[in-house]
C-alpha cells in the first residue's frame, strides 16, 4: 500500500501538549515535561509524520522543537498570527487546546510551511539572552514611569533602587551578548558585516544574528515577508485601500525600525532614498517602511554575498 501522508499539529501549553493528526483525525495528549516529550516522540516515530507544525509561543516551543528535530522529525515553527488568521478564514472562532491542535494540523496539511533547521546551542543561548534583555528593558521603562508618578519619597527611593538593579542586569547581559558574538568566529564575521552598515548598532546586529538566522538564505521578497515589512494590498472591487504591513517578527522589525531612523540621517544610500520618497509626497510612515525594507534587502544581499556594505548596493 502507498504511504499516506500524515500532518500533525501540536498545541503547547504550560502543562500539556495536545496533538492532532490528519487526515487520520487522531488526537492525543501528553504531559509538558521530559517524560511526556519522550512519550510524544515515541508516538511520532511510530506514525512517521510528513510534517509537524507548532506555534512560536514565546519560549515553550523551543525545547520541544529541539527535541523533535534531534529525533529527525520535520517540524515547522510558525507565527501564531498567521495561524489565527487561517482559523478565522475557516470560520473557527472557538479556542481550546484540542481545537488549536486540529487547526495546526489543518494548517500543516493545507499550507505546508517549510521546516526550519535547528538552531545550534550558541544561537539558542544568544536568543535567550536577547529575549531576557528585552524583558528587563520593558521592566526598566515601567519602573521609571512609576518613579515619575510617585509622590512618596520612600516609594521613589524603592523605585530608584529597583531601576539601578535592573540597569545593572542589563549592563551584565550586554557584556554576555557581546562575548557570545565575539567568541564565535562565524558570528564575529557576520557581526562585522552588519556593523559595516551605517545605522546598524551592536544591539541591532545582535538582534538580527539571534532572531533572524535566515539572513542571506532567502530572496528579497521572502526575507521582507518573514520580517513583516512587505506591504499587503487591501483592495476589493473598485475599492483601493492603503497597503499595510502585517505579521512578521515584531522584535526584528522593532530593531530594524530604530536602525532605519538612524540610517536616514547617516547612511547616504538610505538617506537619499528617503529624501526621494518624501519629496515625491510620500507620508513619513510610508517612506520609513520603504526604507526599512530597502535596508533589510541590502543586509540580506550582503550576507548572501559575504561582503561588507558599499554604496553600489541598490
Structural features, described:
This protein is an alpha/beta fold. It has three domains: 105 residues, Ribonuclease H-like superfamily/Ribonuclease H (Nucleotidyltransferase, domain 5); 63 residues; 127 residues, no CATH class. It has twelve helices and seven strands. It has a five-stranded mixed sheet with strand order 3-2-1-4-5. A two-stranded antiparallel ribbon has the order 6-7. Strand 6 and strand 7 form a beta hairpin. The longest helix is centred in the middle third of the chain and has 30 residues. The protein is globular and about 55 Å long. The N and C termini lie far apart (53 Å). About 3% of the residues have low confidence.
- N-end to C-end Cα span: 53 Å
- Mean pLDDT reading: 86
N to C succession of SSEs: EEEHEHEHHHHHHHEEHHH
Main β sheet profile? 5 strands, mixed
**Tally of separate helices:** 12
Give the number of domains.
3
C-alpha Rg (nearest Å): 22 Å
Helix content: 55-70%
* Poorly predicted tracts of residues: 233-241
Counting DSSP E segments of at least 2 residues, the number of strands comes to: 7
The shape, in one word, is globular
Lateral arrangement of strands in the main beta sheet = 3-2-1-4-5
Beta-strand residue percentage: 5-15%
Based on secondary structure, the structural category is alpha/beta
